[in-house]
Amino acid sequence: MGPHEVWVPLSMFIGLSVVLSLWVGFRYKAKRDLQVTIRTAIEKGQGLSPELIENLVNPPASPQRDLRRGVIGVLLAVAFVLFGIILGEEDAVRPLVGTAMFPLSIGIGFLLMHRFGRST
Length: 120
Known about the structure:
Elements: H1 3-43, H2 50-57, H3 65-87, H4 90-116
Helix pairs in contact: 3-4
């Protein structure tokens, strides 16, 4: 196994770790900012109703959220398949089509949830 064969999977896991760390970090920052906002409002004497706090902590789900996630999943699957086709190597097409099944299945699941989910 040459040195280049080690760097490819290593860079994939490093990239995945960086993306996951950034996602967790931004979620932490958003929650911290929300707590600072609530604390500032309380210190200034503004009354916060339980409904307002509930909406701040758990915002109501957008009815289009499942649709957006479903479309992104399906398009990500299409991107994997097109990438495999554009590479032009027969050995690459089959694994990339197999990999595309995961975001495709998740995307279709979100689209079904959007279509048949509760309409409130």
